[in-house]
# Entry
Amino acid sequence: MTEKQPGREREKRLFLVLPCYNEEEVLPETARQLKDKMDALASRGLIAGESRVVFVDDGSSDRTWELITALHRENPLFQGIRLAHNSGHQNALVAGLFTVSALCDMTVSMDADLQDDIDAIDEMVEKYLAGADIVYGVRKSRTSDTFFKRTTAEGFYRVMNHMGAGVVYNHADFRLMSAKALQGLMQFGEVNLFLRGIVPMIGYRTDTVSYDRRERFAGKSKYPLSRMLHFAAQGITSLSVRPIRMITSLGFFIFFVSIVAIIYSLARYFTGHTITGWTTTVLSVWAIGGLMMISLGVIGEYIGKIYLESKGRPRYIIADYLKDAQDMPDLIDRKGRIK
# Structure
């Protein structure tokens, strides 16, 4: 047991926040395991009895909300937030975190598919009590992944950091955040969210907990390769302007090469040598044309984000939430904004 920081002995209200999208197959088992974990933490005196588990239904089309409602009726430990439509994992996570920010002393965000090791929560809470405001859950290894999955995932983190989006290696969204850290997160107003890059910007004291990621208990992954690629592009363009600077550098390089080519061509002309190489010329035109299209695409991605940010649309809209009247005040309006 780590030494507790003075003043945090009474700050033990833990809220688990779990975004859910079509998780009816796994939700009953998730609730059972989380109840056992919360009971065990409370019996050890690590968390208060007012701690809760909050499921955020991100516009599911199956029986996810029906199951969340049933769990809430059976046990006040479970609470639920239902979004009006599918807003995406990051927005659903923020919806849960912001809703409980005024009620908790600490939150732990995790997926509902039981791949995150719930036993790691104990060490997270202990490190919070020792003074950490943010505790990252970091995978020990990826030996259980396929070669393709392991290679693409590790490449994802390397590319993200190389592009200037500072992320914690092998960390997803399994993390503990104190109420103070949540208040810091609420000051970030962008619509295009990439929490893995935003949370490290908050600062404060951080720590890590290593764990082994498990197989999904049931259901299918909501992140195929195409979505992971979109997620990576979202993170890079939301947090860094390095791709645009790379385009600028590439432009200067091509301009320099073209000057050399012009000098070479003129020299060949004045020395009486005919210039051959129609194929090379065509290929060069195609190559430069392709680079121009890629460059326009990258710039367009940034312009599109500026367009979306300028609209100031809400990140999410809350349709309903299940709460305990005595301990969850009406803190949010129907547009998902803090009152």
Observations:
- The CA atoms of residues 166 and 201 lie 8 Å apart.
- Residues 327-339 have pLDDT under 50 and may be disordered.
- Residues 278-311 form the longest helix (34 residues).
